[in-house]
Amino acid sequence: MSTAGGAQAGQSASSGGRQEPQAVIRESAKYRRRAQEAERRAEALEAELEAMRGEREEESSRLGADLTAARSEADSLRGRVEAIERDRRLEREFLAAGCADVEAAVALARHRLAGQEPPEDLKTFARALLAEKPHLRGEPAAAAAARGLGPCTTGVKPAGASGQRRVLDRLADQARQTGNAKDVMTYMRARRGGI
Question: How many CA atoms lie within 13 A of 96 on its CB side?
Answer without folding.
Answer: 12
